[in-house]
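REQUEST FORM: STRUCTURE PREDICTION
Request ID: SP-0412
Submitted by: Lab K.M.
Chain count: 1
Length (residues): 427
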Amino acid sequence: MAFARPHLDENARERAAAPGKGAQAPAPAQRKALGDIGNLVGPFNTRCNVGKENAKKAANVKSDAVQAANHAGPLTRRAAAAQGLTIDGNGGWGNTKVRSVVPRGKDAETTSAAPEPAAAKASSKIPTGRSMSALLQSRSEAAAAAAEIKPQPQSPMPDIDSEDKGNELAASEYVADIFSYYKRVEPQYRVSPTYMSRQTDINDNMRAILIDWLVEVHYKFRLMPETLFLTTNIIDRFLECKRVSRRNLQLVGVTAMLIASKYEEIWAPEVKDFVYISDEAYNREQILNMEKCMLNTLSFNLTVPTPFNFLSRFLKAAGAAKDTLVVAYATYLVELAMLDYAMLKYSYSMLAAAAVFTANKALSRSPHLPHSLKRHAGFTEDGLLPCAVALADLHRSAPAASLRTVYKKYSHTQYGRVSIMQDTPAF
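STATUS: Completed
RESULT:
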């Protein structure tokens, strides 16, 4: 037998619960809502929302919480929908994320936005983010403006090679690059001013005696000035690397001059000439063996800056390249410094610049360091002053020194007799 299912009115329960309509039947007891399944709307477990849109949502949640506080008993989602409350924001643990109801695209332009509360407007005024590069640039500009930094325009490098444009031997197109290279590699080939402390059988006085004798040999062979300065450079670089006995020190000297002569001279002296000049203290085989040893020790690096390279350039920068007296005086000071081991603490470029500065001042050519020399040498007058004072002291003590070869050499007329001049500059 089939029984017909009685017709049930699905709204009967709500009409019975509504006040003022017919008989008042007692409403069935509602089940207490659970707080951990997300079916309550209220201010509990409210998360912090940051941003303009989330600030608006937080304000709506706050207004909903006020209405929910006036409602007696727990407020379910159905009851909240009946009262027109907004269910938004993030609930407690276990709730799903509520989809955003903010219109996008063209719908956002036609939808009228609800007025925001004052608190939401205040919280929405959050400065937009800035990139790190823009932030650093603004800070640097502010610091520069505060310190009033105004870069000074540097004057152009004086052109000292314009007169040699038609002289192929002057290499005016490359000379600036050549001396730029010399300045760059100068520290690489500079010897330590304390290398003699590692020698056990020789000292700085023996070095001075050797170089003084080589100046005389150089003068008798009528060699170029570049050969003498390269000879001294080879000796110092070799003694810095190898320990040499007192017996072989002169052998190192004559071999260094042989190597420098082959490099600089058109007609270099032969090995037999150095055997003769050393009074046959060493034979041909010994000189050739020492030549191999020295070249291997120096890795065949012979294209190195010397004081004479810088001296010729700085004389030209000072406008004194054609002043024979200034040239002789400056060269005399550099050769005096070549014998003094203590002068190794100054670089070759500083030594040459200080010699030109001292010669100009001693001969009353210029009391101050010329601007062109300052730019090309890269030194200031105050920076050259200690070296210039040391050179002036060497000039004053040269007549009474025990090693007088350089002094006698520059007392000849062909050098302007600059060594016997008594007028030394006072710094």
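NOTES: Confidence is low (pLDDT under 50) at residues 86-96, 105-114, 118-127.
Reviewed by: T.R.
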